[in-house]
Each structure stands twice: as C-alpha cells, then as structure tokens.
Amino acid sequence: xxxxxxxxxxxxxxxxxxxxxxxxxxxxxxxxxxxxxxxxxxxxxxxxxxxxxxxxxxxxxxxxxxxxxxxxxxxxxxxxxxxxxxxxxxxxxxxxxxxxxxxxxxxxxxxxxxxxxxxxxxxxxxxxxxxxxxxxxxxxxxxxxxxxxxxxxxxxxxxxxxxxxxxx
Length: 168
Known about the structure:
Layout: E1 9-17, H1 21-28, H2 31-36, E2 46-52, E3 56-64, H3 71-77, E4 83-91, E5 96-103, E6 110-121, E7 124-135, H4 141-167
C-alpha cells in the first residue's frame, strides 16, 4: 500500500427539516424525490435500482457531470464524461442512513461515503452527516478532493432545501 491510499478528506454537514424524523426518513427513501431534483452542473439522475422492505430502503442513481471541468480534472479523466453511481440507504428504525458514491469508470480512483443520523430538534429534525471523499491519484488526489468537496456539500444543501419545501 502507498501512503496516498490512506488519505481522505473528511466532510460534515447539518440540515434542519420542518418535520419529524419518520417523515424525513420516508421522503429520503423515495426515488422520485431525487429524480425531481435539479442540481447544478449535473444532468438529471438515472434510477438504476430501488428497494424498500418497509424498514430499509436503498436507491441507486447514476449522475453525469455536465458542467465545466477545470483543466487538471480534464487531463485526469480524458475525453470521457464524468459519471458516478450514488447509493442512498435509509434505515427507518435506526433514524439513520448512509450515502455511498463512486466513479462509474474507475471506482477505486474516486469514491466516498457518508453516514447520517436523523435526530429530533425542536419541532423538526436535524440531519447530521459525516463523510469522506477519496481521490486515489498520487500527487493530485488531495488537491482534487479539496476542489470536489465544496460542490458536494452545496448539492447536499440543495437536496435539503428541496426536502424542507416538500416537508412543509
């Protein structure tokens, strides 16, 4: 193992929702919620898979980046489009879940995960999310991670805003 394989950029986010935890969990377990989101620099997602046994729901989506890539990123991925698969799992009984994502072409080079919890907060719910992003490319991975995380966090904020509107 190389030392660069152990480095990860950690990220954290908190979002408040104007509804109780079970309602938030139910919304986050609905594929149509994600399919209707318009996120900056991304094409509309493609639903790859969805399952829900009443307690645990998993949604797999494919996203394609359609925005402008900086020159370093363009050199790394070449002429191909940047696409990734994202899986959202919601465990209703635990008021928690996880988010996993990986590059479609080479998941070992670009991947990440986050765990989240849904906790009561006043009359609503607070989602606390802790995650990590890995760009496993020697020499540039750390810089790429730091450039990607702000966009990832902004997209999570937009998702939370849309959920808040639907839950109001």
